[in-house]
Amino acid sequence: MEAVLSILVGLFFTAGIYLMLSKAIVRILLGVVVFGNAVNLLIFTAGRIMREVPPVMSLDMTQLTGDTANPLPQALILTAIVISFSFFSFLLVLTFRTYQEVGTDDTVKLRVAEPEGKILPPMGY
Amino acid sequence: MAGPIDITGAMITTPTPAGDWLAVVPVALPIITGAALLMLRKRLHWQAPIAVATLAVVFLATLALLVRVWTFGTVVMTMGRWLPPFGISFTVDLLGALFACTASLVALVCSVAAVQSVARPARRYGYFPFLLLTAVGVNGAFLTGDIFNLYVWFEVFLISSFGLLVVGSTRAQLDGTLKYGVLNLIGTTLFLIATGYLYGIFGTLNMADVIRKVPAVEGAPLMTLATLYLAAFSMKAAAFPVQAWLPASYHTPNVVTSAFFGGVLTKIGVYALLRVLVLLFPLQLAGLSGVIGWVAAATMVLGALGALAQSDIRRMVGFLVISGVGVMLAGLAVGTGPALAGGIFYAMHSMIALTALYLLAGLVAERAGSSSLHVVAGLSSAPVLIIAAFILMLSIAGLPPGSGLWPKIMVVQAALEAQHGWLTAAVLLSSLLTVITLGRFFLFVFWRPPVADGLGERPKRLMSPGPMLALTFLAVVMGLYPEPFVRAASHAADGLLQPDAYVRAVFGEQG
Q1: Of A35, A86, A119, which is closest to B310 when you measure between CB atoms?
Q2: Which of B188, B118, B114, B205 is nearest to B154 (CA)?
């Protein structure tokens, strides 16, 4: 199971990075989402995948017997999902507003803050 | 239930000493008032006073924390009474306290400057709550002793900084924030990958616990881990070649926002590099030293060259921020005690001097009605600005009596002792380029007679130079009386190189 998920994580990373290399911002954002989910899956895989034994102890036990799934990575992923989802929503709205104002979502043409030409300072006075 | 359960093995049973509560004040207080200000959104005249008062209290708290750490050693407070490593520990050593104190001072000064310069619409859309919440994330990052918690604080200050950057929504701001947002999000995602692997290898996220477990781990890909952290934090610190987001965005928002970001945010990346590479992975740092050295040299020299090629004065300062990060990384690359101390001192100097320079650029642009070096000229009637600009130029270039002199000497001396001659050459070359850049800025802005097409329109009410002067004064103090700062930075560097005290503070004597 771990092997399958590891390969899946690799595929996710590949797809995410490929999308991020695009010039269109919407594609870059989709790439960021896939990239973020690859990380979530990676942490999930690192936390041992087994659902037969719950990580719960009875009162007379002081430590778990045998391997169980580690609940902490799942808590980490929950945090990461919430954060990356809110970032994604914000960046989507920001992209839309930028498209409304500037009229393009092509990163090559998006040069309002860094206009081309006339950036060199005067040579003297 | 069969009787009470013995909890002493898992939980802290003694109450936290009153003084240790100081560790959470710089985070807890602004998060509460920040939320309150969001609710009081409609009461515009309440926003600024509450924000300034909060940040003043936060600064005093970090100052008290610094004094406490200096006197009694590392302060630890573990959340939820769980024994470390199960609860999240706020672990404040001298390094964290120094950075938090300097950053809080900068935040306070910026909030005072914002009272005058932030326009009404920006206040309506929550400028001051965003400022407070950014300060929360910044302080949290400096004070926490848990690496996943560090990631969370990174995200906290990142998302609040989006708000500060974009509020006002001009075309340039939207463009800059988009690039800043996407590239920084990728940087923190790299940080998260590294943290996932770290948990997979060590089974713990508490930094003191990781220090204890590093020697016992064999055959683990620690070098990969250290390299991932280096890539992630270099992106936050705007080191070459992952610096492109900084000059694309920092000149677009209100100048106070630029000042706060330019002063504080990149130093969090440097802080995280020091914390993770020196404290957790010293052996891997030694292996990466060559790479970091090249990155540092390229950052310093290319940053200064970039500044030299800008006609927009705020973009020029942005490139100087990048150049300064290179000096701190040079300290990290050399890696000896004095070099790290130089890097830490330089970070403190840089927070103060670059914030002041951004504010000065704002004052100059406001008086001239433009921020282009083609237009700004003939400001010879503002003696206060001229003196401050001269002092800041000396400070940032590293000439006496400015604050940049001593940390640069420390880094250069340590690099020479460690046989890193070319790194020394890079520091000196970047200093020379900085002198030329700022000297030309000074010449054009203050000495050149007004140019033919005249100055732009001046606003009716000018920003007060007070906050900028306060920081400039501090830069002079740091330059003329560097002794306490050098001592503090040296102790902080020693604390990083000998982590026993850090571990003992978290786990008690048996650690």
Answers
A1: A119
A2: B188
- Residue pairs spanning A and B at CB distance below 8 A: 114
Nearest to B172 among A32, A35, A112 (CB): A112
- Residue A31 near chain B (CB below 8 Å): no
Sign of CA dihedral B415, B417, B418, B422: positive
Q: Is A59 on the interface with B (CB under 8 A)?
A: yes
CB atoms within 10 A of CB B349: 30
- How far apart are alpha carbons B316 and B310 in whole angstroms? 5
| Tokens found for residue B408 | 């640069």
Q: Inform me whether the C-beta atom of residue B174 falls under 8 Å from chain A C-beta atoms.
A: yes
Which residue in this structure is represented by tokens 């400039």? B472
Q: Which amino acid is at B148?
A: F
Mind telling me how many Å the CA of A2 is from chain B's nearest CA?
13
Model confidence pLDDT, tens digit, residues B399-417: 988 899 999 999 999 999 9
Say if residue B384's pLDDT is above 50: yes
ipTM of the complex: 0.93
Is the pLDDT score of B454 beyond 60? Answer: no
How many structural domains comprise chain B?
A: 1
Supply the pTM of this predicted model. 0.94
pLDDT, tens only, A11-28: 999 999 999 999 999 999
Assigned token pair, B41: 């959104």
Find the DSSP H helices in B203-312.
Answer: 207-213, 222-237, 245-249, 255-260, 266-273, 282-308
Distance CA B461, CA B465 (A): 12
**Neighbour-count burial of B217, counting CB atoms closer than 10 A to its CB (0-12 exposed, 13-18 middle, 19+ buried):** exposed
Q: B14 lies in a domain?
A: no
CB contact under 8 A, B182 and A43: no
Tell me, yes or no, whether B350 lies in a domain. Answer: yes
pLDDT tens string B175-208: 999 999 999 999 999 999 999 999 989 989 999 9
Tokens of B115: 């009272």
CA distance B187 to A55: 33
Residue A106: CB partners within 8 Å, gap ≥ 6?
A: A23, A24, A25
Containing structural domain, residue B167: 21-454+462-507
Residues of chain A in contact with residue B5, where contact means CB-CB under 8 angstroms, are: 59
Q: Choose among B166, B171, B309: nearest Cβ to A94.
A: B166
CA distance A76 to A44: 9
Which residue, among B165, B171, B182, would best test binding to A if mutated, counting the most A CBs under 10 Å from its CB?
Answer: B182
B16 belongs to a structural domain: no
Task: Parse chain A into domains and list their residue ranges.
Answer: 2-50+72-102
Helix (H) / strand (E) containing B484? helix B483-497
Which candidate in A35, A45, A83, A107 is best for mutational testing of the B interface (most B CBs within 10 A)? A83
Say if the Cβ atoms of A125 and B310 lie within 8 Å.
no
Quote the distance between the C-alpha of residue A112 and its chain's center.
27
**CA distance readout (Å), B316 to A22, B235, B281, B382:** 29, 20, 35, 21
